[in-house]
Amino acid sequence: MELIFTKKLKPTDISHALSFPTHALEAFSFPEGAHTVRFEAVDATDTEWEFDLSTRLTGPYPKPVLLRSSWHPFVDQKGLLPEDRVAFFMETLGEADGMIRRYTVRAQRKVMVLMGQDVWVDVEDLPLYGL
Protein backbone atom coordinates (compact mmCIF):
# COMPACT_ATOMS: atom_id res chain seq x y z
CA MET A 1 0.00 0.00 0.00
CA GLU A 2 1.40 3.37 -1.04
CA LEU A 3 0.90 6.60 0.90
CA ILE A 4 -0.65 9.28 -1.34
CA PHE A 5 -0.45 12.01 1.30
CA THR A 6 -0.97 12.90 4.94
CA LYS A 7 -2.35 16.25 6.00
CA LYS A 8 -2.83 17.92 9.36
CA LEU A 9 -6.28 19.50 9.17
CA LYS A 10 -6.79 23.25 9.29
CA PRO A 11 -10.06 24.90 10.34
CA THR A 12 -11.01 25.48 6.67
CA ASP A 13 -10.43 21.77 5.92
CA ILE A 14 -13.01 21.00 8.62
CA SER A 15 -15.57 23.70 7.79
CA HIS A 16 -15.32 23.75 3.99
CA ALA A 17 -13.49 21.50 1.55
CA LEU A 18 -10.33 19.47 2.10
CA SER A 19 -7.55 21.00 0.07
CA PHE A 20 -5.53 18.27 -1.63
CA PRO A 21 -1.83 18.61 -2.46
CA THR A 22 -1.34 18.94 -6.22
CA HIS A 23 1.16 16.05 -6.35
CA ALA A 24 -1.60 13.71 -5.09
CA LEU A 25 -3.49 14.12 -8.38
CA GLU A 26 -1.11 11.54 -9.91
CA ALA A 27 -2.91 8.82 -7.94
CA PHE A 28 -6.26 9.48 -9.68
CA SER A 29 -7.49 8.99 -13.24
CA PHE A 30 -9.61 11.90 -14.41
CA PRO A 31 -11.80 11.20 -17.45
CA GLU A 32 -10.68 13.08 -20.57
CA GLY A 33 -11.70 16.75 -20.27
CA ALA A 34 -13.16 16.31 -16.76
CA HIS A 35 -12.17 18.33 -13.72
CA THR A 36 -13.91 16.10 -11.16
CA VAL A 37 -13.49 12.43 -10.35
CA ARG A 38 -15.44 10.34 -7.84
CA PHE A 39 -13.55 7.64 -5.96
CA GLU A 40 -14.25 5.27 -3.09
CA ALA A 41 -12.00 4.88 -0.08
CA VAL A 42 -12.32 2.39 2.78
CA ASP A 43 -11.73 3.53 6.37
CA ALA A 44 -10.40 1.63 9.39
CA THR A 45 -13.83 0.03 9.98
CA ASP A 46 -14.14 -1.13 6.33
CA THR A 47 -16.81 1.51 5.69
CA GLU A 48 -16.77 2.74 2.10
CA TRP A 49 -16.78 6.49 1.52
CA GLU A 50 -17.41 8.19 -1.81
CA PHE A 51 -15.36 11.34 -2.33
CA ASP A 52 -15.51 13.88 -5.15
CA LEU A 53 -12.08 15.25 -6.05
CA SER A 54 -12.22 18.42 -8.10
CA THR A 55 -9.75 20.80 -9.71
CA ARG A 56 -10.55 24.35 -10.69
CA LEU A 57 -11.19 25.20 -14.32
CA THR A 58 -9.22 28.46 -14.45
CA GLY A 59 -5.97 29.80 -13.07
CA PRO A 60 -2.38 28.65 -13.27
CA TYR A 61 -2.71 25.90 -10.62
CA PRO A 62 -5.32 23.11 -10.36
CA LYS A 63 -5.96 23.67 -6.59
CA PRO A 64 -7.52 20.23 -6.00
CA VAL A 65 -10.10 19.81 -3.25
CA LEU A 66 -12.44 17.16 -1.92
CA LEU A 67 -15.83 18.76 -2.38
CA ARG A 68 -17.67 19.66 0.80
CA SER A 69 -20.72 17.55 -0.12
CA SER A 70 -18.64 14.34 -0.11
CA TRP A 71 -16.05 15.31 2.54
CA HIS A 72 -18.37 16.58 5.30
CA PRO A 73 -20.17 13.31 6.06
CA PHE A 74 -16.72 11.80 6.75
CA VAL A 75 -15.67 14.77 8.93
CA ASP A 76 -18.93 14.62 10.92
CA GLN A 77 -18.95 10.85 11.40
CA LYS A 78 -15.31 10.81 12.54
CA GLY A 79 -15.67 13.89 14.76
CA LEU A 80 -12.64 15.51 13.14
CA LEU A 81 -11.13 18.64 14.64
CA PRO A 82 -8.43 21.08 13.53
CA GLU A 83 -4.98 19.55 14.16
CA ASP A 84 -6.29 16.01 13.53
CA ARG A 85 -4.88 14.48 10.38
CA VAL A 86 -6.09 12.50 7.44
CA ALA A 87 -4.07 10.03 5.40
CA PHE A 88 -4.92 8.60 1.98
CA PHE A 89 -3.35 5.42 0.62
CA MET A 90 -3.55 3.63 -2.72
CA GLU A 91 -3.09 0.00 -3.61
CA THR A 92 -2.72 -1.02 -7.26
CA LEU A 93 -4.08 -4.42 -8.20
CA GLY A 94 -3.76 -6.31 -11.49
CA GLU A 95 -1.80 -5.76 -14.67
CA ALA A 96 -1.51 -2.55 -16.69
CA ASP A 97 -4.55 -3.43 -18.88
CA GLY A 98 -6.88 -4.32 -16.03
CA MET A 99 -5.27 -2.18 -13.34
CA ILE A 100 -7.54 -1.41 -10.39
CA ARG A 101 -6.76 1.23 -7.82
CA ARG A 102 -8.10 0.72 -4.32
CA TYR A 103 -8.01 3.64 -1.89
CA THR A 104 -7.91 3.73 1.90
CA VAL A 105 -8.51 6.72 4.17
CA ARG A 106 -7.52 7.12 7.82
CA ALA A 107 -8.67 9.81 10.25
CA GLN A 108 -6.17 10.21 13.06
CA ARG A 109 -5.61 12.21 16.24
CA LYS A 110 -2.33 12.87 18.02
CA VAL A 111 -2.52 11.25 21.44
CA MET A 112 0.95 11.96 22.79
CA VAL A 113 4.55 12.79 22.06
CA LEU A 114 6.86 9.90 22.84
CA MET A 115 10.62 10.42 22.74
CA GLY A 116 10.14 13.52 20.61
CA GLN A 117 7.86 11.79 18.08
CA ASP A 118 4.14 12.45 17.61
CA VAL A 119 2.01 9.34 18.20
CA TRP A 120 -1.10 9.25 15.97
CA VAL A 121 -4.05 6.91 16.48
CA ASP A 122 -7.02 6.20 14.21
CA VAL A 123 -10.02 8.03 15.71
CA GLU A 124 -11.91 4.72 15.86
CA ASP A 125 -9.30 3.48 18.36
CA LEU A 126 -9.43 6.50 20.71
CA PRO A 127 -11.66 4.70 23.27
CA LEU A 128 -8.86 2.15 23.72
CA TYR A 129 -6.70 5.04 24.99
CA GLY A 130 -9.43 6.36 27.29
CA LEU A 131 -9.92 9.40 25.06
From TrEMBL:
GO CC, any one term: nucleus
InterPro entries: B3_DNA-bd, DNA-bd_pseudobarrel_sf
Organism: Salix udensis
Location within or outside the cell: Nucleus
Major location category of this protein: nucleus
GO molecular function, one term: DNA binding
Keywords: DNA-binding, Nucleus, Transcription, Transcription regulation
Protein name: TF-B3 domain-containing protein
UniProt entry tagged with the keyword Protein biosynthesis: no
